[in-house]
Amino acid sequence: MVNYRFLGNSGLKISEITYGNWLTHGSQVENEAALACVKQALELGITSFDTADVYANTKAEAVLGEALKGQRRESLEIFTKVYWTTGPGGANDSGLSRKHIMESINGSLQRLGTDYVDLYQAHRFDHETPLEETMQAFADVVRQGKALYIGVSEWTADQIRAGQKIARELGVPIISNQPQYSMLWRVIEDEVVPTSEELGISQIVWSPMAQGVLSGKYLPGQEPPAGSRATDVNGGANMIARYMNDPVLTRVQNLKPIAQDLGLTMPQLAIAWVLQNPNVSAAIVGASRPEQLVDTVKASGVAIPLDDMAAIDEALGDIVERDPELTAKSSPATRPS
Is residue 55 annotated as a catalytic residue, yes or no? Predict the structure, then answer.
């Protein structure tokens, strides 16, 4: 079963393996399979579920809502996000304006079939909306009972600090950040994590398996397996492309003996690795088949010895991305349309 961790400096506990439906529900996976995956997640003790209005252009939220129908709402932690374009792409169909936030939370609640979400997150930083306007809108969402807590996603350390200052003044502090984080992508370690620790914020990390590369199934010098994310022309291939080269894939293969010595599969090692960071509250995992979750949840509660953590660093060498400036590049200078 899955362990729980507190989310930031709050009393909210979430499952340290959190189920996410970014690249699956409403797009890659048929609804029947999606429902089966959520059922399996619940049976394995996962109670935290992450989605966003933009995933499959709102369809992912609707599928998750259907999958959770009939469950005791108080026993679940449901997260969703706002920022990216939804709907036809009108002038106010994206960003973190008060208008878009207020309309988006209502749409998300309707699709999810719930009166509130446990965590409402700013999916990116909006350079075109005053930060005060954004944080006031988020505070009002909480005061209206439509969200219990607020968080951000892929904000820089400076953005987090500025947002938290306003949020605290409003009495609704930010408790989480949702960044990409894996053995191969460590850009949050130098600035975002120390700032978050100082401000009472923890990380809910996405892509802990680096889009599946850390599963070890992609071999240097060979074509990607048929049906894998690297062959998905609808978006998966673009996300994983940065890792699909022989130097990276060769280094990843060097992790296999480390995983074997620890009695872990490669996916378990990847997820357990991010959970070694004390500022990480949860790793988000997705699934296209229920049996994938049976394997990955076994990473919960695993303690990787320091010698093995050092061996992982040595095995990966200089292919690890650490540049903190890359976080800033994830938020567009102007709102998407």
Answer: yes
Residues (pLDDT < 50) of the chain are 26
Rg (CA), the chain: 19
- Residue 292 neighbours by CB distance under 10 Å: 16
**What is the CATH number assigned to the segment(s) 4-210+274-303+320-328?**
3.20.20.100
**The predicted structure's pLDDT at residue 221:** 75
Can you give the pLDDT at residue 261? 98
Crossing angle for the helix pair 31-43 and 59-68, to the nearest 10 degrees: 50
Contacts of 257 (CB under 8 A, 6+ apart): none
Task: List the chain domain ranges.
Answer: 4-210+274-303+320-328
The pLDDT tens digits of the residues spanning 26-61 come to 455 567 888 899 999 999 999 999 999 999 889 999
Choose among 89, 199, 91, 90: nearest CA to 155: 199
Q: Can you give the pLDDT at residue 63?
A: 92
107: exposed, middle or buried (Cβ count in 10 Å: 0-12, 13-18, 19+): middle
Token digits for 104? 């988006």
The secondary structure of 207-230 as a DSSP string is -TTGGGGGGT-S-TTSPPPTTSGG
Coil, helix or strand at residue 161: helix
Give the pLDDT score at 32.
82
Q: Let me know: does 335 contact 164? Beta carbons within 8 Å.
A: no
Residue 120 belongs to what H/E stretch? Answer: strand 117-122
Q: How far apart are CA 269 and CA 21, in angstroms?
A: 21
Single out the catalytic residue among 4, 55, 120, 181: 55
